[in-house]
Amino acid sequence: MEIAGKVAVVTGGGGGIGAALAERLVAGGARVVVADIDADSAAKVAGALGDKAVAVGGDVADEQVIAVLIATAEREFGPVDLYFANAGIGGGPGLDSTEAQWAAAIDVNVMAHVRAAKLLVPGWVERGSGYFVTTASAAGLLTQLGSAPYSVTKHAAVGFAEWLSVTYGDQGVRVSCLCPMGVDTRLLSGDLIPEDPDAAAFAIKAVKTAGAVLSVEEVADTVVEAMAAEHFLILPHPEVLQMYRNKGSDYDRWIAGMRRFQTMLRA
């Protein structure tokens, strides 16, 4: 899969991984709709990319907003070839997470992907091509200490991407799932659990202790390289694959190890 000449939508494009993806896509010859709930941030990113990008502000978990993104892409550039379901939020801490925190995490981290796929996949099947890229997390393959909503919804995001690939992969729809550990974004600067600084600090400490913190540019480059090879799992931290294998080979041992890691962090 080559990105040159393609039309892409990137959600959560006002900063972090999304902004880096938009920049990398335009550099590779694609045209991009940059979407973000922060309209000013989206406009700033798109403006820096020139006439190959346009911005749309809005809640990308809202099906009507997703429809606007698709319509904007079609009007400005042509039919959408690539959709990056990149927007994500942290959620709450543990069992004390509120119903509102759970609902928001499910809406943004999972249902936004489902709603986008509902609008795009039938047309991609008819055309025989399309690419859906989910930004999940290593937490979706392993877990996230300190945040139940984040861990659970990222698992669900991976699960939906798997289902999408299995169900439509033979009809021209390609799917990749990005699962990094630490990346230098706002989530790793306190926004993972904004309502609970102590829980956020613990969750962020777990991420930073587990492996290197990568730049958003490094992650964007890894995504484009993996898409060229049409890999399902995109792992900017290669060690995640071995961790995932260890988990699958002996689940009880892996859980015991995670408990020890948690105890070490708390100490």
TrEMBL record:
Q: Could you tell me what this protein is called?
A: SDR family oxidoreductase
Could you confirm whether the keyword Oxidoreductase appears in this record?
A: yes
- GO molecular function per UniProt: oxidoreductase activity
| PANTHER family given in the database record | 5-KETO-D-GLUCONATE 5-REDUCTASE (PTHR43669), SHORT-CHAIN TYPE DEHYDROGENASE_REDUCTASE-RELATED (PTHR43669:SF8)
**E.C. number(s) listed in UniProt:** 1.-.-.-
EC main class here is oxidoreductase
Q: Which family does it belong to?
A: Belongs to the short-chain dehydrogenases/reductases (SDR) family.
Q: Which organism is it from?
A: Nocardia halotolerans
Residues annotated as transmembrane: none
Q: Name one Pfam family in it.
A: adh_short
Against PROSITE patterns, the record matches this protein to: ADH_SHORT (PS00061)
- What keyword terms does UniProt attach to this protein? Oxidoreductase
InterPro entries reported in the protein's UniProt record? NAD(P)-bd_dom_sf (IPR036291), Sc_DH/Rdtase_CS (IPR020904), SDR_fam (IPR002347)
